[in-house]
Amino acid sequence: MHNRNYSCIFLLLIVFISAHVTAQESEFVPEAKPIDHIVAVVNEDVITRQELDEAIKIAIGRLQLQGAQLPNQHTMENQVLESLITKRIQLQHAKEVGLSVGESELDETILRIAEENKLTLPEFYVVLEKDGISYNKFRDEIREEMIMARMKEREIKNQVNVTEGEVDNFLHTQETSAEGNDEYRLAHILILVSENMNSAQIQQRAERADMALRKLKEGVEFAQVVAEFSDAADAKQGGIIEWRPITQMGPAFAELLTPLQPGDVTQVVQSPNGFHIFKLLGRRVQEVPTVIIDQTHARHVLIKINELTSENDARLKIIQIKERLDKGEDFAEVAKLYSEDTSASSGGDLGWLSPGDTVPDFERAMNALLPGQVSDPVRSQFGWHLIQVMERRSQDISLNRRRQTARQAIRNRKADVVVQEWLRQLRDQAYVEYRLDNDH
């Protein structure tokens, strides 16, 4: 009866709109072309000049929101085009493997985006229309972002595993290091290196990283150098890495970043996926709060509704079971005989439940009960229930929460490497023909 938590993609609508509006007000707008034409061929698909211009406007808006100086038009076009190519390759691969997002799921996500921005759906539509954003276009963008997020998650799930030993070591490092609980906010530049590059090509990438570092030393804004040089997916957003524990960065990077003061820039550092330059934007101590929650020890009887049992039959059956319990029959024995949940063999015992562990209908009914009390029949998406609360307690889950946080940090660190490698492999396997030079 536990509620499954799905990881959803929540885009910040206000940033999307602000970037769009800022780009509209910018003087840096791609020159209008009388006839749309192809600027790149990606396998059997194409990217048009109009698509590129629209993406450039959004990229300009984002950079201006960050207060970054814009790169020249040639650099901007090439950076944005590379981003579009990478996106198109991912979507093509998703189609090949049959990965898609259904209409109802998309509707639910858009509703949540509106709610995240404290808007009703009608208000949401008005905001989009007011700022000149096509609702259908926005809907397509959300669908594509969901598909790409799901693709990445699938790759991560297949390749990333975190052991209890790794979690133990992570926490031990935090406890024994003065900086273990520090969180860092960074900007970074990544010059990618592909596994099929020869030594000469790798040397060229190293020289490109050195060139980026020279520009930084000459006083060029970091965000501008990011936009011009970085191959990372977040280059258009200024290469920002939001607050994360230093231990999540990996031992090599942690050693490099620990001595830095805000505003400092590292030398070029090499990793398996390329050459990196980091700038420390801020540092703070990560607080580890005490987390105490109310837990309920409960058991239940479930009668499912399916092809063999109608809604009415299930309801009548659960009423009859309730009458037997009211006459004094043992709850555990009744659950073993009649419950259709996997917990039946243990007398319907669900163990200690934390808030959010069960579906809302079940949790609301359970929370209204006193210890020892049996509920009236309760309908949920799983069928009809009878619930008994056995006892309640307040539980300090700080250690569990710390372990969950550590596990997620380790997973994120491994996932970054896996995703970059996966994207590089997709890119290497794709046929890409550039036609942007023919545009000038």
Tell me the name of the CATH homologous superfamily of the largest domain. Answer: Porin chaperone SurA, peptide-binding domain
Q: How can the largest sheet be summarized?
A: 4 strands, antiparallel
**Helix and strand sequence:** HEEHHHHHHEHHEHEEEHHEHEEHE
Ends apart, CA distance between termini? 62 Å
Structural class: alpha+beta
How are the strands ordered across the major sheet?
A: 4-3-6-5
How would you state the average pLDDT, rounded?
85
- Count of helical stretches: 14
What is the annotated CATH architecture of the largest domain? Answer: Orthogonal Bundle
As for the CATH topology of the largest domain, it is Triger factor/SurA peptide-binding fold
What are the low-pLDDT stretches, counting only 5+ consecutive residues below 50? 3-15, 17-23
Describe it.
- This protein is an alpha+beta fold and 440 residues long.
- The chain has three domains: 13-159, Porin chaperone SurA, peptide-binding domain (Triger factor/SurA peptide-binding fold, Orthogonal Bundle); 175-289 and 415-439, Chitinase A, domain 3 (Roll), CATH 3.10.50.40; 293-396, Chitinase A, domain 3 (Roll).
- Helices cover 49% and strands 18% of the residues.
- It has 14 helices and eleven strands.
- The chain has a four-stranded antiparallel β-sheet.
- Strand 1 and strand 2 form a beta hairpin.
- Helix 3 (73-96) crosses helix 6 (135-159), helix 6 packs across helix 14 and helix 8 (199-217) packs antiparallel against helix 9.
- It is globular and about 85 Å long.
- Residues 3-15 and 17-23 have low confidence and may be disordered.
